[in-house]
Predict the structure.
Amino acid sequence: MSFTVAIDGPAAAGKGTISKGVAAHFGFAHLDTGLLYRAVGRRTLQGDEPVAAARALTAEELEQGDLRTAEIAQAASKVAVIPDVRAALVDFQRAFARRAGGAVLDGRDIGTVICPEAEVKLFVTASAEVRAERRFLELSAKGADVTREQVLADVRERDARDSERSTAPMKPADDAVLLDTSDLSIQDALSHAIGQIEKAKPATL
Ligand code: CDP
Protein backbone atom coordinates (compact mmCIF):
# COMPACT_ATOMS: atom_id res chain seq x y z
CA MET A 1 0.00 0.00 0.00
CA SER A 2 1.33 3.47 -0.85
CA PHE A 3 1.20 6.52 1.40
CA THR A 4 2.89 9.78 0.41
CA VAL A 5 4.11 12.58 2.64
CA ALA A 6 4.98 15.77 0.71
CA ILE A 7 7.24 18.25 2.49
CA ASP A 8 7.89 21.53 0.68
CA GLY A 9 9.41 24.83 1.65
CA PRO A 10 12.19 27.35 1.00
CA ALA A 11 15.95 26.84 1.32
CA ALA A 12 17.23 25.55 4.66
CA ALA A 13 13.81 25.62 6.35
CA GLY A 14 14.41 22.25 8.01
CA LYS A 15 12.71 20.07 5.37
CA GLY A 16 15.63 17.64 5.21
CA THR A 17 15.88 17.13 8.96
CA ILE A 18 12.13 16.73 9.36
CA SER A 19 11.87 14.39 6.36
CA LYS A 20 14.68 12.14 7.59
CA GLY A 21 13.19 12.08 11.09
CA VAL A 22 9.72 11.26 9.82
CA ALA A 23 11.05 8.54 7.50
CA ALA A 24 13.02 6.96 10.36
CA HIS A 25 10.07 7.18 12.75
CA PHE A 26 7.55 5.51 10.43
CA GLY A 27 9.94 3.34 8.41
CA PHE A 28 9.12 5.20 5.17
CA ALA A 29 11.51 5.67 2.26
CA HIS A 30 12.85 9.23 1.80
CA LEU A 31 13.72 11.12 -1.37
CA ASP A 32 15.39 14.54 -1.12
CA THR A 33 14.29 15.86 -4.53
CA GLY A 34 16.64 18.85 -4.21
CA LEU A 35 19.46 16.39 -4.88
CA LEU A 36 18.07 15.73 -8.38
CA TYR A 37 18.28 19.42 -9.27
CA ARG A 38 21.64 19.71 -7.55
CA ALA A 39 23.02 16.78 -9.58
CA VAL A 40 21.79 18.42 -12.81
CA GLY A 41 23.24 21.75 -11.62
CA ARG A 42 26.62 20.11 -10.98
CA ARG A 43 26.62 18.65 -14.49
CA THR A 44 26.02 22.11 -15.97
CA LEU A 45 28.96 23.46 -13.96
CA GLN A 46 30.99 20.76 -15.73
CA GLY A 47 29.79 22.04 -19.10
CA ASP A 48 26.79 19.79 -19.83
CA GLU A 49 23.57 21.05 -21.36
CA PRO A 50 20.88 21.03 -18.61
CA VAL A 51 18.01 19.19 -20.36
CA ALA A 52 20.33 16.44 -21.64
CA ALA A 53 21.85 16.20 -18.14
CA ALA A 54 18.40 15.81 -16.55
CA ARG A 55 17.40 13.13 -19.04
CA ALA A 56 20.64 11.20 -18.46
CA LEU A 57 20.62 11.50 -14.67
CA THR A 58 21.31 8.26 -12.77
CA ALA A 59 20.53 7.34 -9.15
CA GLU A 60 24.27 6.69 -8.57
CA GLU A 61 25.09 10.32 -9.31
CA LEU A 62 23.07 11.39 -6.29
CA GLU A 63 25.48 9.50 -4.04
CA GLN A 64 28.69 10.79 -5.63
CA GLY A 65 30.68 13.65 -4.07
CA ASP A 66 29.25 16.56 -2.09
CA LEU A 67 26.15 18.01 -3.76
CA ARG A 68 25.41 20.26 -0.79
CA THR A 69 27.71 23.16 -1.66
CA ALA A 70 26.62 26.79 -2.08
CA GLU A 71 27.83 26.83 -5.69
CA ILE A 72 25.81 23.74 -6.62
CA ALA A 73 22.72 25.13 -4.82
CA GLN A 74 22.80 28.19 -7.07
CA ALA A 75 23.33 26.09 -10.19
CA ALA A 76 20.41 23.85 -9.10
CA SER A 77 17.99 26.74 -8.78
CA LYS A 78 19.02 27.99 -12.24
CA VAL A 79 18.36 24.67 -13.98
CA ALA A 80 15.15 24.26 -11.95
CA VAL A 81 13.45 27.08 -13.89
CA ILE A 82 13.73 25.13 -17.17
CA PRO A 83 10.42 23.29 -17.86
CA ASP A 84 12.08 20.40 -19.78
CA VAL A 85 14.49 19.80 -16.91
CA ARG A 86 11.58 19.54 -14.49
CA ALA A 87 9.61 17.32 -16.89
CA ALA A 88 12.55 14.90 -17.18
CA LEU A 89 12.52 14.36 -13.41
CA VAL A 90 8.78 13.84 -12.88
CA ASP A 91 8.43 10.09 -13.51
CA PHE A 92 11.23 9.13 -11.14
CA GLN A 93 9.71 11.21 -8.34
CA ARG A 94 6.16 9.91 -8.89
CA ALA A 95 7.30 6.29 -8.96
CA PHE A 96 9.19 6.86 -5.72
CA ALA A 97 6.13 8.48 -4.12
CA ARG A 98 3.92 5.52 -4.93
CA ARG A 99 6.26 2.73 -3.79
CA ALA A 100 4.77 0.31 -1.30
CA GLY A 101 5.25 0.99 2.40
CA GLY A 102 5.17 4.79 2.50
CA ALA A 103 7.38 7.55 1.09
CA VAL A 104 8.46 11.03 2.15
CA LEU A 105 9.54 13.44 -0.58
CA ASP A 106 10.88 16.89 0.19
CA GLY A 107 11.28 19.74 -2.27
CA ARG A 108 9.46 22.77 -3.62
CA ASP A 109 6.59 21.41 -5.76
CA ILE A 110 5.83 18.00 -4.27
CA GLY A 111 2.40 18.90 -2.88
CA THR A 112 1.44 21.07 -5.85
CA VAL A 113 2.80 19.30 -8.96
CA ILE A 114 4.53 15.98 -8.30
CA CYS A 115 2.02 14.49 -5.82
CA PRO A 116 -1.11 16.64 -5.61
CA GLU A 117 -2.83 13.52 -4.24
CA ALA A 118 -0.32 13.07 -1.35
CA GLU A 119 -2.05 11.97 1.85
CA VAL A 120 -0.09 14.50 3.96
CA LYS A 121 1.31 17.85 2.81
CA LEU A 122 3.48 20.06 4.96
CA PHE A 123 4.95 23.43 4.00
CA VAL A 124 7.91 24.05 6.26
CA THR A 125 9.22 27.57 6.56
CA ALA A 126 11.21 29.93 8.82
CA SER A 127 12.44 33.51 8.57
CA ALA A 128 15.22 34.11 6.02
CA GLU A 129 17.60 35.09 8.85
CA VAL A 130 17.00 31.91 10.82
CA ARG A 131 17.35 29.77 7.70
CA ALA A 132 20.55 31.51 6.66
CA GLU A 133 22.05 31.04 10.13
CA ARG A 134 21.28 27.30 10.03
CA ARG A 135 22.78 26.93 6.57
CA PHE A 136 25.83 29.01 7.58
CA LEU A 137 26.48 26.68 10.53
CA GLU A 138 26.02 23.61 8.28
CA LEU A 139 28.41 24.86 5.60
CA SER A 140 31.02 26.15 8.09
CA ALA A 141 30.98 22.81 9.94
CA LYS A 142 32.08 21.21 6.65
CA GLY A 143 34.91 23.72 6.39
CA ALA A 144 33.35 25.83 3.59
CA ASP A 145 34.73 29.35 3.31
CA VAL A 146 31.48 31.38 3.58
CA THR A 147 30.21 34.40 5.50
CA ARG A 148 26.78 34.86 7.11
CA GLU A 149 26.09 37.72 4.69
CA GLN A 150 26.88 35.58 1.63
CA VAL A 151 24.67 32.75 2.84
CA LEU A 152 21.75 35.09 3.57
CA ALA A 153 22.09 36.69 0.12
CA ASP A 154 22.23 33.24 -1.49
CA VAL A 155 19.14 32.02 0.36
CA ARG A 156 17.19 35.16 -0.61
CA GLU A 157 18.26 34.93 -4.25
CA ARG A 158 17.23 31.27 -4.52
CA ASP A 159 13.91 31.87 -2.72
CA ALA A 160 13.08 34.63 -5.20
CA ARG A 161 14.03 32.52 -8.22
CA ASP A 162 12.18 29.46 -6.89
CA SER A 163 8.96 31.30 -6.08
CA GLU A 164 8.86 33.54 -9.14
CA ARG A 165 9.49 30.93 -11.86
CA SER A 166 6.50 30.18 -14.07
CA THR A 167 6.77 26.36 -14.04
CA ALA A 168 6.06 24.73 -10.68
CA PRO A 169 6.85 27.77 -8.52
CA MET A 170 7.49 27.13 -4.84
CA LYS A 171 4.24 27.70 -2.96
CA PRO A 172 2.14 25.87 -0.37
CA ALA A 173 -0.57 23.60 -1.80
CA ASP A 174 -4.06 24.81 -0.86
CA ASP A 175 -4.43 21.86 1.49
CA ALA A 176 -0.90 21.99 2.99
CA VAL A 177 -0.36 22.41 6.73
CA LEU A 178 2.07 25.28 7.39
CA LEU A 179 4.87 24.71 9.87
CA ASP A 180 7.00 27.71 10.83
CA THR A 181 10.17 26.40 12.47
CA SER A 182 11.71 29.81 13.29
CA ASP A 183 11.16 29.34 17.02
CA LEU A 184 10.95 25.55 17.17
CA SER A 185 13.63 23.08 18.19
CA ILE A 186 14.29 20.19 15.79
CA GLN A 187 12.50 17.87 18.20
CA ASP A 188 9.41 20.11 18.40
CA ALA A 189 9.24 20.53 14.61
CA LEU A 190 9.57 16.79 14.16
CA SER A 191 6.90 16.02 16.78
CA HIS A 192 4.51 18.37 15.02
CA ALA A 193 5.14 16.67 11.66
CA ILE A 194 4.74 13.21 13.19
CA GLY A 195 1.44 14.30 14.74
CA GLN A 196 0.08 15.41 11.34
CA ILE A 197 1.06 12.10 9.77
CA GLU A 198 -0.43 10.02 12.62
CA LYS A 199 -3.78 11.68 11.91
CA ALA A 200 -3.75 10.62 8.24
CA LYS A 201 -1.95 7.29 8.31
CA PRO A 202 -4.06 4.14 7.91
CA ALA A 203 -3.70 1.71 10.82
CA THR A 204 -2.64 -1.03 8.40
CA LEU A 205 0.53 0.76 7.26
O1 CDP B 1 18.58 22.21 0.89
P1 CDP B 1 17.97 23.43 0.28
O2 CDP B 1 16.60 23.69 0.80
O3 CDP B 1 18.87 24.62 0.35
O4 CDP B 1 17.88 23.17 -1.30
P2 CDP B 1 17.43 21.86 -2.08
O5 CDP B 1 16.15 21.35 -1.52
O6 CDP B 1 18.57 20.92 -2.14
O7 CDP B 1 17.12 22.43 -3.55
C1 CDP B 1 18.10 23.07 -4.34
C2 CDP B 1 17.37 23.82 -5.45
O8 CDP B 1 16.70 22.86 -6.28
C3 CDP B 1 16.27 24.75 -4.99
O9 CDP B 1 16.72 26.06 -4.73
C4 CDP B 1 15.28 24.72 -6.16
O10 CDP B 1 15.61 25.65 -7.15
C5 CDP B 1 15.46 23.34 -6.75
N1 CDP B 1 14.37 22.42 -6.42
C6 CDP B 1 13.19 22.49 -7.13
O11 CDP B 1 13.03 23.36 -7.97
N2 CDP B 1 12.18 21.61 -6.91
C7 CDP B 1 12.31 20.65 -5.98
N3 CDP B 1 11.32 19.78 -5.80
C8 CDP B 1 13.49 20.57 -5.21
C9 CDP B 1 14.51 21.48 -5.44
Q: What stands out?
A: The longest helix spans residues 148-164. The radius of gyration is 16 Å. Strands lie at 4-8, 29-32, 103-107, 120-125, 177-180.
